[in-house]
Amino acid sequence: HGSCKLKYDLSHPSSQLEQRQDSARPGSGVSTKTKCFSCVCGITSQVDDQNRNTTTRWAGPACQKRDVSVPFWLLAGTTLGLVGTIGWGVGLLYGMGSEELPSVIGAGVAGLGARGK
Q: Which of 73, 70, 49 is nearest to 58 (CA)?
């Protein structure tokens, strides 16, 4: 699901490698490796029985795991947004419910008993 790519190459003369090679003598324990390779994970596409294209992104040190970070953050962000919006709406309605009605509206809502007195 991935391939090895050259991450960086320190063998160019413009690098600081020359200074390190001067201090690196055999047996000194200082490494003189100049190239670093790493695994670059890829994307695979498949067409299923219903002619739908499914794309799978891979992750992990050896590209062995399915990358579910984007669907996770979409689901988590949507859930938190909905919970926050519903909580805000309920709080707003609760705050409005404890307010006293204006006198014009209150007279129409009070009923016949309050008007007859």
A: 70
Distance CA 5, CA 8 (A): 9
Angle in degrees, CA 42, 44, 50, rounded to 5: 165
φ, ψ dihedrals at 71, nearest 5°: -60, -35
How is 100-113 classified by DSSP, letter by letter? PPPHHHHHHHS-HH
Split at pLDDT 50, 70, 90, the class of 77 is: very high
Contact 99, 93 (CB under 8 A): no
- Residue pair 59/2 in contact by the 8 Å Cβ criterion: no
- DSSP secondary structure letter of residue 47: E
* Cα angle for residues 81, 85, 90 (degrees, 5° grid): 150
**Considering Cα of 8, then 11, then 14, then 15, what sign does the dihedral take?**
positive
pLDDT (0 to 100) of residue 54: 87
Report d(CA 62, CA 75) in Å as an integer: 26
